[in-house]
Amino acid sequence: MDEDRKRKLARQFIESIPHARALGMELTEIGDGEAVITMPYDTRFVGDPSTGVIHGGAVSTLMDTCGGAAVVSHPAAHAGTATIDLRIDYMRAATPGQRITARATCYHVTRNVAFVRAVAMDEDEAKPVATATGAFTVENPGRGK
Amino acid sequence: MNRSRPEPVQVVKERRDRALAALAGSIPYAQFLGIEFERMGDEVTAKLRFDEKLIGNPLLPALHGGATAAFLETTAIVELAWQKLWHDIESGRLDAETLTPDTLPRMPKTIDFTVDYLRSGLPRDAYARARVNRSGRRYASVHVEAWQDNRSRLYAQATGHFLLPSGDE
User: Fold this and answer.
1) Per the database record, which ranges form the Thioesterase domain (chain A) (predicted)?
2) Which percentage of chain A shows pLDDT scores above 90?
3) A140 DSSP 8-state letter
4) For the domain A3-137, what is the CATH superfamily, name and number?
């Protein structure tokens, strides 16, 4: 994928998803089945005010969005995708105040299914906050659903 | 104490509603998404009120899978916390009148959560109920079902494992 197309795809991807915009997501890398998206710390996204830790659901949303971006950027996939299933393992609480970054890899694509792995980190990139694995749909143009 | 005389219905309802509201109100992200909780006895139903900001695919349009995942995870956590809180307020160990985020029991922590997307989420309200399949001293396994128009046509389901707060925390 050439650099111009990557940049255009990156900009359009988040802009076209109202829920990703609502969470302040920013796509920083995309192409060839890999994507990186970051999300700022925001007190509205907190799950437990006694700790200030971001809600697991917000981290899930970041990983799901990033997984979808990785799928649509894969050379064998097309424009759209939907999540079939997603499993998240929460390794530790994200440090309050820090931005969360997810990196997703679409490591295998068949005619109908894309397989994805993702990892989420705060500013301490050596210790992941969460990992995810998921299956996504591959939309084939011209084929009835 | 006269054991044969039950408490007036309003006293019972107010205590339980107040405790559930305190629990729900203690989760900022649930409020951001627009999640509300309704109670019949000890059964809790969560409601995700539709909003444009929950859309993940504007062409269909469909709810974002992440919003659905967060809705299901919140429902599971609230159900687990509610079951403990119910015992605490009914036994008199905690006073529902004075519950604040600081005095509420600690929340369970998610270990893992697996969401199964069965249909695309339509641009309208969604509902969910959780069932605690096993809750031991330290770990719990919870299943959640979510639907929109028809209770029997689930649009998503999930299973999660949770670490329960220990008594001394």
Assistant:
1) 52-127
2) 78
3) P
4) Hotdog Thioesterase (3.10.129.10)
- Residue predicted with more confidence, A12 or A70: A70
CA distance A62 to chain B (A): 7
pLDDT of residue B53: 98
Q: Give residue A1's pLDDT.
A: 64
Asked whether residue B2 is assigned to any structural domain, the reply reads: no
Query: At residue B28, what is the residue type?
Result: P
Is B1 part of any domain?
no
Q: Residue A142 pLDDT more than 80?
A: no
Identify all chain B residues contacting A22, using CB atoms and an 8 Å cutoff. Answer: 53-54
CA-based nearest residue to A118, from A109, A106, A127, A100 = A106
Tokens of B160: 């999660």
Query: Among partner residues A21, A63, A84, which is closest to B117 by beta-carbon distance?
Result: A84
Per the CB < 8 Å rule, is B62 touching A82?
A: yes
**Full domain range(s) for residue B74:** 9-163
Inter-CA distances, B4 with A30, B1, B7, Å: 69, 9, 10
Residues of A in contact with B58 (CB under 8 A): 16-18
CATH number at residue B102: 3.10.129.10
Going from N- to C-terminal start, the domains of chain A cover 3-137
Calculate how close chain A gets to B91, using CA atoms only, in Å: 25
CA A58, CA B30: separation in Å to the nearest integer? 10
Please report which helix (H) or strand (E) contains residue A131, including its range: strand A130-137
What does the pLDDT average to over A83-96? 97
